[in-house]
Amino acid sequence: MLLKSIRGVKDLRGKRVLVRVDYNVPIDNGKIKEDYKIAESLATLRYLRRHGARLILLTHLGKPKTEADWPKYSVEPIAKRLSKMLDCKVAVSAEVSGLKSASAVAKLGDGDVLMLANVRYEAGEEKNDARFAKRLAELAEIYVNDAFAVCHRAHASVSAISKYLPAYAGFLLEDEIKALTRALEPVQPMISIIGGAKISSKTGLVKVLAKKSHKVIIGGALANNFLLARGYETGLSLVDEESIAFARSLKAKNILLPEDAVVKSYVDGDAVRVKNISDIGKKDTILDIGPKTIALYASYIREAATIVWNGPMGRFEEKPFRAGTIALAQFAGARARGRAFAVAGGGETVEAIKLAKADHDFDWISTGGGAMLSFLGGERMPGLEPLKA
Ligand code: ADP
Ligand code: MG
Question: Is 155 in the pocket of ligand 1 (CB under 6 A)?
Answer without folding.
Answer: no
